[in-house]
Amino acid sequence: MNLPKLRKIIHIDMDAFFASVEQRDNPELRGKPVAVGGSAERGVVAAASYEARKFGVKSAMPSKTAKRLCPSLIFVKPRFDAYKQVSLQIREIFAEYTDLIEPLSLDEAYLDVTENKKGIETATQIAIEIRQKIFEKTQLTASAGISFNKFLAKTASDINKPNGQCVIKPSQAEAFVETLPIHRFYGIGKVTAEKMKAMGINSGKELKEQSQEFLVKNFGKVGKYYFEIARGQDHREVVAERETKSVSVENTFTQDLELVSEIYGDLYRLAESLLVRTQKHNLVGKTLTIKIKYADFESITRSKTIENGYFQKEEINKTIDYLVENLMPFPKGIRLLGLGVSNFLDEKTETGKQLNLEF
């Protein structure tokens, strides 16, 4: 019997990315508490330097709160063009090793290096090389987590920050997860963590003691994910991001979404609106893309292509389920959701396709 081959997953996370770019480009800011975004009077902190974090300043925190915690805090206007340029430089380095790159934002990504372009035997060595090249090219530091699945790699990247890396081997996974405080689990946000603590679930060990039925009943579809990660399991694939031009619909929320049930519900409603638009123009796209903008304004997209195209609500919802399940859990609140189709079928060559279907 051949056992499935263990994957080699690296999670690369730039250290205080936006703030570090500002400190790199402006020597007067080095060694000082810096907040990117907002002002002393209004707005929200998009990123904070490590000097500011020592005072408790965090991303997505109201600027007034940040200033109260750190009176010497220096506010800097964000320069997203500069951050995107550095992010592209980093992605070029990733691409030297693998094409399986799943960006989570401008400053972090998963890499599947099970099979890598350079034939390097260990993911640990690849992570060392990538971090060294990033520093040489950008003068910025990155941290890395290395393991056999996304959850563990993501968790590991936070352990030796800044400018460090950590490996979690298969033999270490369950013991490591058991000792992890529940608020340190990636995807268990503040609201969910408080709910779990009220149930007596304070650690990975106590999470592991809960049945899958109990977790699904109390937390919805993401409960299955919680059940698996409590055992060090995560079957999500590294899904490469594809940029697409599309007919799309989107919704911006007055309050950030945190509950997975709300995210699914809104995407299903967007699917209905999207079908109305595509059917009106007799368009069937082969590629469906979801767009997510987080509370700190960073955006990601994920896509899936099917040969027959998306002309039925059921097929769109099925792909929504697939894409969301591969993104869960969400690291922060969501302020915008979008849905689009692209890569349209050519009506002249798809003569058998019925384009106007009821839904």
TrEMBL record:
The record marks 18 as: Substrate discrimination. Its EC number is 2.7.7.7. Binds 2 magnesium ions per subunit. Coiled coil: none annotated. It is an enzyme of class 2 (transferase). Keywords: Cytoplasm, DNA damage, DNA repair, DNA replication, DNA-binding, DNA-directed DNA polymerase, Magnesium, Metal-binding, Mutator protein, Nucleotidyltransferase, Transferase. The active site is at residue 108. It comes from the Bacteria. Its cofactor is Mg(2+). GO terms for cellular component: cytosol. Poorly processive, error-prone DNA polymerase involved in untargeted mutagenesis. Copies undamaged DNA at stalled replication forks, which arise in vivo from mismatched or misaligned primer ends. These misaligned primers can be extended by PolIV. Exhibits no 3'-5' exonuclease (proofreading) activity. May be involved in translesional synthesis, in conjunction with the beta clamp from PolIII. This is DNA polymerase IV. The lineage of its organism: Bacteria, Pseudomonadati, Bacteroidota, Cytophagia, Cytophagales.
